Amino acid sequence: MSRVGKKPVTIPSGVTATVDGQTVKVKGTKGELSFVVPDDVAVVMENGAVKVDPRSETKRARAMWGMSRAQVASLVEGVSKGFEKKLEINGVGYKAAVAGKVLKLSLGYSHDVDYEIPAGVTITTPKPTEIVVAGIDKQKVGQAAAEIRKFRGPEPYKGKGVKYADEFIFRKEGKKK
């Protein structure tokens, strides 16, 4: 039994949710999102909450049950509060700046790295060594942050590179004489 799937997704005030067949549409102050629930799962509106139940007791149906409930909960949170990921840049001369629809990164390469900011995501740089990725779609925000981090991931000896603000980098000891 899915512990996640059992709990209905409550809809906060200021957010409207509609269920049309297998499609769940959620509209809030930040925007509108929709998700098509797999056929293995039934989704209904009950008492101001979205309830998700499996149609059968197969392994796939149980897996889709919890996943579908989590997706609907992410839609509701996204349109009401939004999502945000913070990245930190460590290293001498490493910096970031937003120029229009492009994030320019200086990460120690012979050239600057230009990252096209995807639609539905906003990227800001409060400091040259700090990047904030925000948006209403949890998947797009996480994907954009992961792609930025991938340009130069943190290394374990000096800690240089791009890392998540809450990430701990296990440091290694260098060579000994």
UniProtKB/TrEMBL annotation:
<dbReference type="InterPro" id="IPR019906">
    <property type="entry name" value="Ribosomal_uL6_bac-type"/>
</dbReference>
<keyword id="KW-0699">rRNA-binding</keyword>
<comment type="similarity">
    <text>Belongs to the universal ribosomal protein uL6 family.</text>
</comment>
<keyword id="KW-0687">Ribonucleoprotein</keyword>
<dbReference type="GO" id="GO:0005840">
    <property type="term" value="C:ribosome"/>
</dbReference>
<dbReference type="Pfam" id="PF00347">
    <property type="entry name" value="Ribosomal_L6"/>
</dbReference>
<comment type="function">
    <text>This protein binds to the 23S rRNA, and is important in its secondary structure. It is located near the subunit interface in the base of the L7/L12 stalk, and near the tRNA binding site of the peptidyltransferase center.</text>
</comment>
<feature type="domain" description="Large ribosomal subunit protein uL6 alpha-beta">
    <location>
        <begin position="91"/>
        <end position="164"/>
    </location>
</feature>
<comment type="subunit">
    <text>Part of the 50S ribosomal subunit.</text>
</comment>
<dbReference type="InterPro" id="IPR020040">
    <property type="entry name" value="Ribosomal_uL6_a/b-dom"/>
</dbReference>
<dbReference type="InterPro" id="IPR000702">
    <property type="entry name" value="Ribosomal_uL6-like"/>
</dbReference>
<keyword id="KW-0694">RNA-binding</keyword>
<protein>
    <recommendedName>
        <fullName>Large ribosomal subunit protein uL6</fullName>
    </recommendedName>
</protein>
<dbReference type="InterPro" id="IPR002358">
    <property type="entry name" value="Ribosomal_uL6_CS"/>
</dbReference>
<dbReference type="InterPro" id="IPR036789">
    <property type="entry name" value="Ribosomal_uL6-like_a/b-dom_sf"/>
</dbReference>
<keyword id="KW-0689">Ribosomal protein</keyword>
<feature type="domain" description="Large ribosomal subunit protein uL6 alpha-beta">
    <location>
        <begin position="11"/>
        <end position="82"/>
    </location>
</feature>
